[in-house]
Amino acid sequence: MSSLLTNTSAMVALQTLKTINTDLGKTQSEISTGKSVATSKDNSAIFAISKVMESDVAGFKAISDSLSLGESAVSLARQATETVTDLLTDIKGKVVASQAENVDRSKIQTDISALRDQITSIVGAAQFNGMNLLQGTEDVNILSSLDRSSDGSVNASNITVNRQDLSSGAGSYGTGTSLTPNATSSSATISATGNTSDLTIAAAADVSGDTFDITIAGTSVSVTGLTGDQDAAATAISAAINALGLEGISASSVTDTVTISSARAFEDVGVAATSGGTGITVSAATIGERAENVTFSTSANVNEGDGYKVTVGTDEFTYVAGKGENFEDVANGLKTAIDAGGLAGITTRVAIGSSGEAILKVDNSGADVALASAGAAGGDASGGLFGLDGIDVTTNQGADAALANIEVLIESSIDAAASFGSSQSRIETQNSFVSKLTDSLKAGIGSLVDANMEETSARLQALQVQQQLGVQALSIANQAPQSLLSLFR
To answer: Cβ distance 321 to 302 under 8 Å?
Structure first.
């Protein structure tokens, strides 16, 4: 049946043409935007995923900037610390030169002072955008990543860079919890007389033909050809020991007893004695070192701001621990402080005991002085190069002390440089990873939303042909009612 009012063929052709035009418009949009999913109506799920990933890309770009800033700051700090290490090494060379007796120590001290001032200048100037990693102890966090979990939550990750305090300030002793039990003094007095061991000879009316073998500090002597009783033997043994000329070792006799004294500051002296027949006994097989000890705890921890004090005579010397330090660091700090005090006859040394305990040894070659130790929490930490200002090689005592102390300062500076180097390497690695991760995210976004231009181009040509055919089909369908006119002629 033909109808003037309803042209079914034209309706079908029109709908087909509309569909072709819609597809053609979408294809032209893909070509102009380069995206197959340009808006949420194109594909809401893919659009949502791509936008989340695009926000992550923007975030990682900001992270890359943060890492670049952090890397620059750490690199500057590392270079400054390495320069400080070189200057400290130069100071060590001056200190070593001062050990000779025929040098002008005042001129050497002038050079040391100039190098010390240069170190202070470098530490103060080593700042990047106002941040100085060579002063203070607070950690610096550098934004390094955004971690998105499966539930969609996002957490920021940081790379922590430890500040390395290379200032030389003395810090301030606290008034907090008492830490005195952590530092024990071996005696309340530092005496210059040293320690002794007695050789007691058994009673004998005649020691003729007897032989006495004495060993002191690894050196042996035999006493023979004696005449008289045990008192005469004691006198002869005492004379033989003194004739050895052992440094710091002397002997004296009273009746049947020989008293061996050792003035060696930081060295124990072994003593042994045997007799061919008369008999001889030793009161102490070891004569202890003359120095008195301040022994630190092996069970307690050292926290930033923990201060320890050693009193020698009427002079007080303090050291306040910094972040990450231990009791060996405390002992070295106190040694440096005492050495810088320049007390006549007072020398120091740091040792590690058989149980791992840190020991500060204080020797005295002058008049007896009092010794006491104490500790308290809550102070402000001393600088990492504490004691640098106290290096003085103008005296024999100062030159000897400086040689040991400069080694501690160099070690602190090397540790700081190593720490910065490790942090910089980690930041560089993370920055490289973030760059690659950003590229991967961009590639992922492209695979989701970018149009396949080869395919789209081919589809465009096909749709253009379909459009032309659709127009022709619609034109033919619209001409169909014209045939009805022939019926009315």
So the answer is: yes
